[in-house]
C-alpha cells in the first residue's frame, strides 16, 4: 500500500512565507482497510427518508453524536433524483457543517456524491488540538455512486468538526453515509505500522483547486493530509 503525501499546508503556508511541517490526517479510500483500524460505533445513513421526494430536515439535524447543519438541509430521494442511494445535502450549494459532540473519535468517514455539477469540494477538518486540515475531493456523480473517504486523526487528536464547501454554485455534494469510531491499537499513526511515505507532487494541482474558498484560513494551518491509495 502506497502512502501519498498531500502537503496542502506546505503549499498554502508558503504563500504566507511560513511553511512548516506538522501532524497528518490520513485519508483511506478503501472502506475495508479503514474499518480494520478500530471500532466503528456510529453509522448514519438516510435510507429511511422518502425515496420519491426531497425531504427537508431539521437545521441542525442531530443523529447520535453528529450534528449536521447548512442553509437548507434535506435528503434527496433516490427515485426522484435517479441517484443510487438517498443523499443528505445543502440545497443551496453552500457549506455543510458536521459537528461531533463527543470527544475521542479519531475515525470519521463519509460517502460523497454530486447531485449536479462536477467541481471539487474543499473538506476542512478540525480536531481537539485546534488544528485544521483541508484537502480537495471530487465526488462521483450520485447517479453512479458515492465516493468513500475514511479519515484517521493524528496521534493524540480526535475530530470535532468537518466543513464541506463546494467550489462552485452548481455542485451539490450529497452524503449517503457518515461513520464515527476510534482506533483500538495504542498508536493511530500510519508510520507505526511500517507504512512507507512516497511524495506525490502530481496531486498538488488537485489540492490547489480546493484552496480558493479557504485560502486565508489555510495560511494558519499546520497540518498535512496523507492519502492511502
Summed up, the helix count is: 4
Give me the CATH architecture, please. Sandwich
Measured by DSSP, the beta-strand proportion falls in: 35-45%
Shape: globular
Biggest sheet overview: 12 strands, mixed
Order of SSEs: EHEHEEEEEEEEEEEEEEEHHE
Terminal Cα separation, in Å? 7 Å
What share of residues is helical? 10-25%
Report the CATH superfamily: Galactose-binding domain-like
Question: C-alpha Rg, in Å?
Answer: 17 Å
Descriptive report:
The protein is mainly beta. It has one domain: Galactose-binding domain-like (Jelly Rolls, Sandwich), CATH 2.60.120.260. Helices cover 10% and strands 42% of the residues. The protein has helices at residues 8-15, 31-35, 204-209, 215-218, and strands at residues 3-6, 24-28, 38-45, 54-56, 61-63, 66-70, 73-76, 87-90, 96-100, 107-114, 121-127, 132-137, 140-141, 147-152, 159-166, 173-183, 197-199, 224-228. The strands form 2 sheets. Strands 1, 2, 3, 4, 7, 8, 10, 13, 14, 16, 17 and 18 form a 12-stranded mixed beta sheet that branches. Strands 5-6-9-15-11-12 form a 6-stranded antiparallel beta sheet. β11 (121-127) and β12 form a beta hairpin. The radius of gyration is 17 Å and the shape is globular. It starts with a strand and ends with a strand. Residues 1-21 and 186-222 have low confidence and may be disordered.
Amino acid at each position: 500500500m502506497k502512502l501519498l503525501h498531500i502537503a496542502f499546508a506546505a503549499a498554502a503556508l508558503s504563500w504566507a512565507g511560513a511553511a512548516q511541517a506538522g501532524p497528518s490526517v490520513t485519508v483511506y479510500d478503501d472502506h475495508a482497510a479503514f474499518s480494520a483500524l478500530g471500532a466503528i460505533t456510529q453509522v448514519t445513513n438516510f435510507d429511511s427518508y422518502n425515496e420519491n421526494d426531497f425531504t427537508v430536515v431539521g437545521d441542525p439535524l442531530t443523529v447520535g453524536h453528529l450534528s449536521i447543519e447548512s442553509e437548507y438541509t434535506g435528503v434527496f430521494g433516490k427515485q426522484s433524483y435517479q441517484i443510487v442511494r438517498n443523499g443528505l445535502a445543502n440545497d443551496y450549494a453552500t457549506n455543510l457543517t458536521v459537528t461531533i459532540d463527543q470527544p475521542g473519535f479519531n475515525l470519521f468517514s463519509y460517502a460523497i456524491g454530486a447531485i449536479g455539477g462536477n467541481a471539487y469540494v474543499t473538506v476542512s477538518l478540525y480536531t481537539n488540538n485546534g488544528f485544521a486540515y483541508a484537502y480537495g475531493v471530487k465526488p462521483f456523480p450520485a447517479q453512479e455512486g458515492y465516493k468513500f473517504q475514511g479519515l484517521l486523526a493524528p496521534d493524540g487528536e480526535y475530530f470535532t468538526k468537518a466543513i464541506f464547501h463546494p467550489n462552485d454554485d452548481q455542485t451539490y455534494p450529497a452524503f449517503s453515509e457518515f461513520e464515527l469510531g476510534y482506533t483500538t491499537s495504542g498508536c493511530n499513526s500510519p508510520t507505526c505500522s511500517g507504512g512507507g511515505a512516497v511524495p506525490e507532487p502530481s496531486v498538488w494541482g488537485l489540492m490547489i483547486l480546493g484552496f480558493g474558498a479557504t485560502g486565508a484560513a489555510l495560511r494558519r494551518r499546520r497540518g498535512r493530509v496523507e492519502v492511502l491509495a
